[in-house]
Fold this sequence. Notes:
It is globular, with a radius of gyration of 26 Å. The protein has a 7-stranded antiparallel sheet. A 6-stranded parallel sheet has the order 7-6-11-10-9-8. It has a 4-stranded mixed sheet with strand order 18-14-15-21. By secondary structure, the protein is of the alpha/beta class. β10 (about 280-285), α13 and β11 form a beta-alpha-beta unit. The protein has helices spanning about 10-20, 50-60, 65-70, 75-85, 115-120, 120-145, 160-170, 180-185, 195-200, 205-215, 230-245, 260-275, 290-300, 310-315, 415-430, 450-465, and strands at about 25-35, 45, 90-95, 100, 105-110, 150, 175, 220-225, 255, 280-285, 305-310, 325-330, 335, 350-355, 365-370, 380, 390, 395-400, 400-405, 410, 445. The relative contact order is 0.15. The protein folds into 2 domains: about 10-135 and about 325-465, nicotinate phosphoribosyltransferase (Alpha-Beta Barrel), CATH 3.20.140; about 135-315, Alpha-Beta Barrel (TIM Barrel), CATH 3.20.20.70.
Amino acid sequence: MITGLYTDRYELAMAEVYWREGRADVPVVFDYFFRTLPYKGGFAIFAGAQTLVEALESFRFGNDELGFLRREGFDPDFLEFLRKFRFRGSIWMPLEGEIIFPVEPIARVEGGLLEVQIIESLLLNILNFQTLIATKAARCCLAARGRTVAEFGLRRAQGLASRWATRAAMIGGCVSTSNLDAAAWYGLRTAGTMAHSFVQSYESELEAFRSFAAVHGPETVLLLDTYDTLRSGLPNALIVARELAVRGIRLAGVRIDSGDLAYQSRAVRNAFDAASFPDIKIIVSNQLDEYIIRSLLEQGAPIDVFGVGTALVTGHPDGAVDGVYKLAVCNGKPKMKRADGLAKQTLPGRKVVSRYIDQEGWIRADAIHLYDESPPTLMVDPYDPTRKIKLGGLRPEPLLRLVVKEGEVVGPLLDIKAAAAYAKERLQCLPPEHKRFENPHIYDVGISPGLAALRDKLITEMMNGA
């Protein structure tokens, strides 16, 4: 269970100063956003909202946590203050499964300075990771063109992160998991076949296949490549398929885990079709990712299910979404980070995001604007003030929704199945040029003229005060 120690030390080091100076309850607004899309892609899928809300419920400091912090040298009176800590702030986020883009606030957190600060690491840890994995899963599912993608990543996941990885993979579009822990925790559909060691433990491959089928009947999936996929595994699978058919049972499928998957899958499909077993599914695995899946289907490989593991649950090759959590308002005053160059500057003020939809239902642009502004009809490129984007004729809708109000969950929070359905629906509304893997079209995200003016005003003030 997550406790108040699920944070970085500097969060509590700052919190102790705020407490000592009587600034713990100074009202603030923080924004969570990222600057770069993962995988050099054209979109990301938001995930982790429900996990974050659940984690905040248990983000507390009991005797064990306070004892550790006492040994770390924190003030005993400060620790007694932490004993009563509960998050009482408010959080706005999109629905899980929503398509999101760089620069725009993905979560807005409001409350007292101390409470909003110390949940930073928790929030970043959950949202960065699950968004990364959900996005990878969505890319694999796009490449699969409607074929099934199963998550097979437990053994290659980063330790206990496997549970969250599975959760996010389901939101991104996977339909099943091999991870029983995650399946039990979240109520997911499971899938699994057999290992090569199972086949090797018998005197013959055929004996292994028969033993497995005797126990699992219509759920049987046979692994073909322990010795020789086409010369041994396939003939023995055909024998077992015929034996099951005599008993009125259909062999569910076969899995290929090595070699030329396109060539072998065609040979296997032809053999099963010739033997009047067109319904036997072909499952492939072995270091798959969206690019390999795409290549296999471009080669005409008759594959029904792709089992994706390592690349999916580790977010390969990126490893992390570069999400950050920045102060936007403190005690009623807009705040921003000024850096050398626009790319590292942050946007000040209490903000909302309006998403613009055209008459055909396509998602076309997102505008970041101050909360008391109406959705703009013109926005400015955040990195190029000379570039203006007109939004006339498009229908705006709010991206962020109030999820936690003064520490209480007010929703909406989608379960995994609903979030996955929502992600699929939203991806269908995203124009195809943003979904291609190579050189995707850059989605328009801009800021309102009012927000641009506020940013420029603060920059001028900081420069004059420097």
